[in-house]
Amino acid sequence: MNPLQERFNDQIYKIEVSDIRKFDERVSPIEGMLKLTLGAPDFNTPDHIKEAAIEAINNNESHYTGMAGAIQLRGAASEFLKKKYSLSYDPINEILVTIGATEAISASLLAILNPGDKILVPSPIFPGYEPLITLSQATPIFIDTSVNGFVLTPQMIEDTMIEHGSSVKAIILNYPTNPTGVTYTREEVKALAEVLKKHGLFVISDEIYSELTYDNEHVSIAEYLREQTILINGLSKSHAMTGWRIGFIFAPKELTAQIIKVHQYLVTCATSISQKAALAALTVGIDDALPMKKEYQKRRDYLYEELIQLGFEVARPNGAFYLFAKIPKEYIQNSMDFCVDLAEKNKLALIPGSAFGDAGEGYIRLSYAASMENLVEAVKRLKSYTLSHSKTV
């Protein structure tokens, strides 16, 4: 054993690679596997965005931008948010361009958390938040939303604050939500804002799926709670640009001034070529998400109805591109065991709900960021599995 192995940061031993990635890697080598696992759009990046990047390369625009990102891009991001969500942020000192939403989350958490702090985390939730909280030597306080159709309520926050009190510094919100696809109405957002204002918490609001909201308009909590909110967004989902790694932080200038220090030492700045592509995405391609959203909605409707017919209880998603389904009682109830069994026997890979926290156990997540042809085949394989293995193990 390498003698240095035991000399890492103590917190590193408390975190693991996410079960999403581990499970995906586990089943990927199986020949003929059909995967509805990762949250990556199956659409290609629009051509006009790619052409903007190629032009930037040919023009040798390969140098550092400012730490906060190119001012033209920050200006475009400001206009995008104003047009789409009626939000106003100064591109000079209230917007940061980040390496995807992931780095935005990392920089924000590192900037606000001290050892011993507590942060509220509605669950089930994307597993990328908890390890960053742990590395900051803070403690996540999970709020189980499965008892309320995966919708966080003001009363849930109040009850948790009574128990944990002044040591709670922040809350993470993610909506439309990964893994459930559930989102919030204007009335629900306003009610959450009122209770969070009362307690003076930082609100890290990850709204990366905002452009993929189906049945109602997306309402940012920053509309009601601007001074406390660190708003995170990006282009990975809205413009099918996962690999380009462009995200944004929008926050009051007093908060941005501190977060940019962390951002600088983590990454210096976002990739210059990707920033040029992002500028095209937010201007010429301001509505690029609309045709994708229309197709996702068709897929959602198809998959939702099929799963209901197969006996799965499903939270109807109003955004993102996931279905979160409760495993019927007659099948294997451990979600990891269920997904492994399904993958090995019927070559269909879904993500076990346990990957999203204890509140996700007993559920499975299906990503419909896949062609309709693949979704039809996936339903066929799932139906075959249910007919052949309809027993509790």
UniProtKB/TrEMBL annotation:
Pfam family, one: Aminotran_1_2
EC number annotated for this UniProt entry: 2.6.1.-
Keyword Transferase carried by entry: yes
CC cofactor: pyridoxal 5'-phosphate
CDD domains xrefs: AAT_like
InterPro entries listed in its UniProt record: Aminotransferase_I/II_large (IPR004839), AspAT/PAT-like (IPR050596), NHTrfase_class1_PyrdxlP-BS (IPR004838), PyrdxlP-dep_Trfase (IPR015424), PyrdxlP-dep_Trfase_major (IPR015421), PyrdxlP-dep_Trfase_small (IPR015422)
Entry GO MF terms: pyridoxal phosphate binding; transaminase activity
Transmembrane segment boundaries: none
Domain Aminotransferase class I/classII large: 33-382
Family: Belongs to the class-I pyridoxal-phosphate-dependent aminotransferase family.
Protein name as catalogued: Aminotransferase
Upper lineage: Bacteria, Bacillati, Bacillota, Bacilli, Lactobacillales
